[in-house]
Design a protein that fits this description.
0% strand, 82% helix, mainly alpha, 209 residues, globular
């Protein structure tokens, strides 16, 4: 999917359109959510808790393991299906040939490179913790590392968009220009709703964290 998105999405649709749908949907949702948060904010939120005994650690761990996966799963499906619906409907208005299932598959598989942002976010968390512990937040190493990670994030986002355009062009049988217009409609209509979904998700997590 990274280098041959058109052939890859065609092969997936011909064999198993639902292949790894849930996993990719969850990773996609988490990646979008991470993009709305600063690494310092997330790390400080985790580090601020002081557990007084083992029972408290066990309780919060069980609550997180039981509740968080279910909440993430629900919100991930909501986001993907809403995004699919918007692209499918706007695509039909532009004489698109794709089915709802094909659009959904194109969305989750084109997010593969974008989902790598999660790895970069974990690296940023580790770097931030090191900087905080050793007091090197102003060092050139920390600053340049942050700039490099930001650069890699931009590349991943741009490449994910390119993959998405090619995949959507394949399933909708559109020209690239028509797909870009379809994406513009998606951005105007769906992005505000996507941010609302992420905001509600973060609010839902507030009682846990």
């Amino acid at each position: 999917i990274w280098f041959k998105p058109r052939n890859t999405i065609k092969s997936i649709l011909e064999t198993n359109p639902g292949h790894r749908f849930v996993v990719l949907s969850v990773l996609y949702f988490l990646s979008v959510t991470i993009c709305t948060k600063e690494v310092e904010e997330v790390t400080d939120l985790i580090l601020k808790y002081e557990f007084k005994d083992v029972n408290q650690i066990i309780f919060y761990s069980l609550m997180t393991l039981m509740v968080l996966p279910f909440v993430v799963f629900i919100f991930a499906l909501v986001q993907v299906y809403f995004e699919t619906a918007f692209i499918f409907i706007s695509g039909k208005l532009l004489k698109g040939k794709s089915s709802f299932e094909s659009v959904k598959t194109a969305i989750v598989w084109s997010s593969v490179s974008f989902n790598c942002i999660l790895i970069l976010f974990l690296i940023k968390v580790v770097l931030y913790c090191i900087a905080k512990v050793f007091g090197i937040g102003e060092s050139p190493f920390y600053i340049y590392s942050g700039d490099l990670i930001l650069f890699l994030e931009l590349i991943l986002i741009l490449w994910s968009f390119v993959i998405f355009i090619i995949c959507l062009s394949e399933v909708q049988k559109f020209s690239i220009l028509k797909v870009v217009f379809n994406c513009f409609i998606l951005f105007v209509l769906f992005m505000p709703l996507s941010l609302v979904i992420v905001f509600v998700f973060l609010k839902a997590l507030h009682p846990i964290f």
